[in-house]
Specification:
Number of strands: 0
Low-confidence stretches: none
Number of helices: 3
Helix content: 55-70%
Structural class: mainly alpha
Largest sheet: none
Oligomer: single chain
Mean pLDDT: 93
Length: about 80
């Protein structure tokens, strides 16, 4: 039985459906750009709400990274 695979389009749909990532660039899928935006929030966070938003976004990105590691085929 072959392992299911995800595409960049799938990752975009997943990221767009994740409320913690609503304020961040998710279309088109660009992992580095998304990480940069979340880390920028961390550096500029001044309020508790900003820090909580960062923590939620970080958790969501970590889940996406796990999906990438497990289900995105690297043809390179």
């Amino acid at each position: 039985m072959s392992k299911p695979t995800l595409t960049e389009a799938d990752l975009t749909v997943i990221a767009e459906g994740t409320p913690a990532l609503d304020p961040f660039p998710t279309r088109p899928w660009d992992r580095e750009r998304l990480w940069a935006a979340v880390l920028d929030l961390h550096l500029k966070a001044k309020t508790r709400a900003d820090r909580e938003a960062f923590q939620q976004a970080l958790g969501a990105i970590q889940v996406l990274d796990t999906l990438i590691r497990l289900y995105v085929r690297d043809d390179g």
